[in-house]
Amino acid sequence: MDQLEIKNLTLTFGGIVALQQISMGVRRGKIHAVIGPNGAGKTSLYNCISGVYKPTEGDILFEEESILNKKPHQIASLGIARTFQNIELFRHMNVIDNLLLGRHHQFHSGPFSSLFFWGRALREEVKHRKKVEEIIDFLEIEKVRKKVVGTLPYGIQKRVELGRALAMEPKLLLLDEPTSGMNVEETEDIARFILDVKEELEITIIMVEHDMGIVMDIADWITVLNFGSKIAEGTPSDIQSNSKVIEAYLGEERL
Ligand SMILES: Nc1ncnc2c1ncn2[C@@H]1O[C@H](COP(=O)(O)OP(=O)(O)OP(=O)(O)O)[C@@H](O)[C@H]1O
Ligand SMILES: [Mg+2]
Fold first, then answer.
1. C-alpha neighbours within 13 Å on the C-beta side of residue 21
2. How far apart are the first and last CA of the chain?
3. Between the CA of residue 196 and those of 152, 166, 204, 205, what are the distances in Å?
4. Burial class (CB in 10 A: 0-12, 13-18, 19+), 108
């Protein structure tokens, strides 16, 4: 049984068809890449999964339950976290605080409960800080943990954003162009961390990525979109030799 099932998903904006009858299944514990030229509908698909856009037609099931009518924070609480095509972090806050905010939906003690049950709030705080430190170790960003995010190199900011998503302890992670804007070394680093997330943390990953080297290296399965439609799916070797895919990318010089 697939962890995430997308069924006949269609999304339109006025006359623009961003997604057309997309169906795909994402297997638990795998890295599933979604690729396609600019404007193919990749980010729109993420916005539908995370509840930001409401599809015109179709359904999305997460662990066999429809999430179509849920709000973004409810979908996050079910265990779906994401990173963004353009980094979305609190630039003026330090790394630790950004990661703590990633755990926000797990804070149980509000201002009143902490007044009466301050012992519990304190225990929770300690637990959250411990988890955040574990993620900081995992992503090897100890040295910058107290640095203000906006002052860090771009590649490290992207890693912090991955950390913020991991701080939610998701079951499914949506990455939107995790290597964009990175140099070769930063790209190799993040690819290794993405593999570690899959293998050590056992989190399912959907990865939108333009760097075909990374996709072919680490994806277990690939879905290809073009102009809002699914044009192919398969293993990296299937996709590399698929004529429809090659045609869609002609002129893009990416494959
Ligand atoms: N909020 C919106 N309003 C109107 N049109 C939109 C909106 N969001 C996306 N679109 C349109 O939907 C189509 C798909 O866009 P989307 O951002 O999903 O593509 P993408 O595959 O992520 O592209 P890229 O590789 O450039 O990030 C485009 O034609 C885009 O202009
Ligand atoms: Mg996009």
1. 1
2. 31
3. 23, 12, 11, 11
4. exposed
Shortest-distance Cα residue to atom 8 of ligand 1: 44
For ligand 1, atom 4, which residue shows the shortest CA distance?
13
Residue with CA closest to ligand 1 atom 28: 39
Q: What is the DSSP letter of 94?
A: B
Ion ligand 2: residues, CB < 5 A: 42-43, 85
Tens digits of pLDDT across the chain (255 residues) = 899 999 999 999 999 999 999 999 999 999 999 999 999 999 999 999 999 999 999 999 999 999 999 999 999 999 999 999 888 899 999 999 999 998 876 555 455 554 555 677 778 888 999 999 999 999 999 999 999 999 999 999 999 999 999 999 999 999 999 999 999 999 999 999 999 999 999 999 999 999 999 999 999 999 999 999 999 999 999 999 999 999 988 756 554
Q: Mutation test of ligand 1: which of 16, 45, 180, 231 has the most ligand atoms closer than 8 Å to its C-beta? A: 16
Q: Which ligand is nearest to the CA of 42?
A: 1
CA atoms within 13 A on the CB side of 178: 31
Tell me which residue has its CA closest to atom 19 in ligand 1: 39
State the distance from the centre of ligand 1 to the C-alpha of 151, rounded, in angstroms.
30
Closest-approaching ligand to the CA atom of 45: 1
Structure tokens at 147: 């640095």
- Beta strands 4-13 and 16-26 are antiparallel
Domains and CATH numbers, the chain: 1-79+170-188+203-255 (3.40.50.300), 91-169 (no CATH)
